[in-house]
User: What shape does this take?
Amino acid sequence: MNQLGFVGVSMNLSLLDPKLIVLVAAVILIIAVVAWLYVRKRKSTTADLRQKFGPEYERAVLAHGSERKAEAKLADREKRVEKLSIRDLDSMEHERFSKRWEAVQSRFVDSPKGQSQKPMTWCPL
Assistant: This one.
């Protein structure tokens, strides 16, 4: 018993205790592996987005001020596009769209200022 009447429990932990050394080494190893996996994932994500978006990736980095913010925006865009129902046009739709597009282009060449003020009603949604 000590002066206050409590039974003292002796903790025989020393910094040279082999169990403590192994425990600390295991914790450090786990932290290092997690950090390495995180860095590897980030590099992989960055490389994938650069490959997929090309020059748009660099523009996004400039626009958003950091790679992390740009990558978040591009990943959000990628998720939104995945939800869209994008399909090829059949031959009739392709022909109709091409003719309408050529007509819009020719009107724009003839009167660019007037055409840029008009709403885009030529493209059916």
About this structure: Residues 18-53 form the longest helix (36 residues). The CA atoms of residues 34 and 40 lie 10 Å apart.
